[in-house]
Amino acid sequence: MKHVISVLVENKSGVLARIAGLFSGRGFNIDSLCVAETLDPTKSRMTIVVRGDDRILEQVNKQLNKLIDTIKVTDFKGEEYVDRELVLVKVNVNSETRSAVMQIVDIFRARIVSVNHNTLVVEITGNESKIVAFVELLRSFGIKEITRTGKIAMARK
Amino acid sequence: MKGAEVLIDCLIKEGVEHIFGIPGGAVIDICDLMNRSSLKFILTRHEQGAAHAADGYARSTGKVGVCFATSGPGATNLVTGIATAYMDSVPIVAITGQVPTPMIGNDAFQEADTTGITRPVTKHNYLVRNVDELPSVIREAFHIALTGRPGPVLIDIPKDVQQKSTSSRYPSSLDLPGYKPTRKGHFKQIEKVAGAIKNSKKPLIYAGGGVIISGASKELLELVQKARIPVTTTLMALGAFPETDELSLKMLGMHGTRYANMAVTETDLLIAIGARFDDRITGKLSEFAPHAKIVHIDIDPSSISKNVTVHIPVVGDAREVLLELNKIVEKADSDEWLEQIKEWKQQYPLTYQQGKGGRIKPQQVVEEIYRATEGKAIICTEVGQNQMWAAQFYKYTIPRQFLTSGGLGTMGYGFPAAIGAQVGNPDKLVFDIAGDGSIQMNIQELATAVINGLPVKVAILNNQYLGMVRQWQGLFYDKNYAYTSLARNVEPAEEGNGPREMETTYIPDFVKVAEAYGAVGMRIERPQDVREAIEEAIRIPKTVVMDFRVEKEENVWPMVPAGAAISEMIDGVELL
User: Fold this and answer.
1) How far apart are CA A109 and CA A134, in angstroms?
2) pTM of the prediction?
């Protein structure tokens, strides 16, 4: 099962390595990991998507808490939250398919950020199901490249 | 003040008296000043020895042990010692030099990514890039090492940081927003424990190293006496509860007593205190304490429900929790159970067969050390058979008297640890019970012991084998003793047609090795000489190495085969 965990950490060098090392050393699976500074520049927030059953999640939670640089761990399980991911997709187009792609982009409220003769680069943000649906639709045109930020999340309240 | 000066000032403010280590290019500024300070530097012969010595110092005194090494190979040599301390929750602070900050990452001479390498084996570590941060880093390091679940902390200090001036000094307070160990147990949970004890007919305490670390032995004894609960201890907790007490079941697990393992299998309430359900304890998890409700008192939340599902968790310091529990606990309905345990203890004592053919039995050596030291010595062990016999045949009654590498199982731990323990306890008798394999992994520290006038006694149970591996090969690998013989085996010159036995030579000659280092060497080959030899070694106020030539293929019994349930112990003493 996938879980979204938000970890508030001290913004110091080596913290990312510490967390990444914890996951690899203990055999936990990371789906994605996002990290950036918070409003307070001495702290960073990491959003980690991790796979595992309840027992593994409990250990992930406890092990993260055990790190000295970890200030707070929030597991969004059973809590109302919003999550988003930003994806850049480079898709093949020609004079015939270009408008079809643009229509899809429109429907999904995505944006075209770069136009070339044979490709378009499209930016989309959204939750997981929207992104999956969008990527699936573009697949038939031929996706040349895809870059994802990984998920970020926030509690609604 | 320069960084190096600030470091020494902060170490003294932290109460440090002794430092174990080896100098080098990246720490030469620190050495230069340390040499003129009140700190006593104990020069070891290998950085691994320094780390283990700091560990032995810490385990035996309860204070933080400090080890010290230069950059690159100095630091990497510390790693085994740091990992050993990490697995057994020992508070040490390791200080390493690093190449100057502008050179970091350039593959400079003697450069290694020390914080990267040690990250998985330290509780925390620091690379100090700014000299102004040095005092607060040192304060934090000692605090983190000693509090909560203790552990090693490493501070990596680049050479230019040691040389730069700073106005920062030892801070009066700490700022660690992410580090607040829970010490007090939740009272509702403690009440539940008391309730469970009251309703239990077959309660059992499973005490771990946390009892020793938190200084909870007195409180444990009080709990046991009030509630009438028998106690089994892990290897790490030997000495936490007096093994001479009628309610002691000694050690449990792979080489524990049969009666302790039977009690675990039958108990209806298992109270784990400062223990972590290690695989050497539990054996096959699904058959561990199958009838028991499980209580787990531990300061480390991540230990709870990691291997075994716990019914009543209590997060907190063992001593703090027991103090509260003792206020409300009532006697368990355990009379019948205690009778049963008494019976088991009589029926399945720890024992061994006396040697045939005049060979010394290794167990006899441990028993004689117990007798000669009146049970009061600090006993260090190496790892393997020597470690298990030392655990089984000495009766431990004092916390911090038994030092062993339980978690990592580091051969070569015992002797340098004994050096550290002797430095921290100059008036106590310190023994290292060793095997002929493990003693050779840090035998160079004989120089450290002799030069510093440390009267450590090393008792080598010399069987010419890497004995524990040989035991497994004997039991589970058709006696194919692959690479476990430490002797030189030579076929004798041809003579007649009869079957020829290999001529084996003991290598090295430990008596000569001891003498080469300026220590006293003794060789003991007959059972009747064991007692006198130990007594003599104790009388000699010097480092002594006793080479006991023991029965070569003696096994450690009883034993739970790897992966079996702990109720399925095999015992070669009966089989023979």
Assistant:
1) 10
2) 0.95
